[in-house]
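Suppose a colleague, Dr. K., hands you the sequence of a protein chain of 85 amino acids and asks what its three-dimensional shape might be. Before reaching for any lab equipment, you can write down a predicted structure in token form. Begin with the sequence itself:
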Amino acid sequence: MKKQWSILRTPSFFDIKTQIMIINACFVLHNFIRNEGLTNKVLEVQDLELLANVDEELTLSREIVQNNITDEVTTIQVTEERTRF
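The predicted structure, expressed as tokens, is then:
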């Protein structure tokens, strides 16, 4: 799903209820497109290019994790906003 819908590829700033609705909407759209057999040659070419870019990014991130090149969290601080959620 992340390859098809770019909104799922980045960290979200939306509240949890909105995030759930976004994910559900992506699945509904995905299922609608598959059920209706909708295709568009121009979009298919763009999708293939996008998928190649996403695959490259995923491969790079895996290599970084395997080489232990990661950002480490050294401190955690509870904020008022998070405790009221």
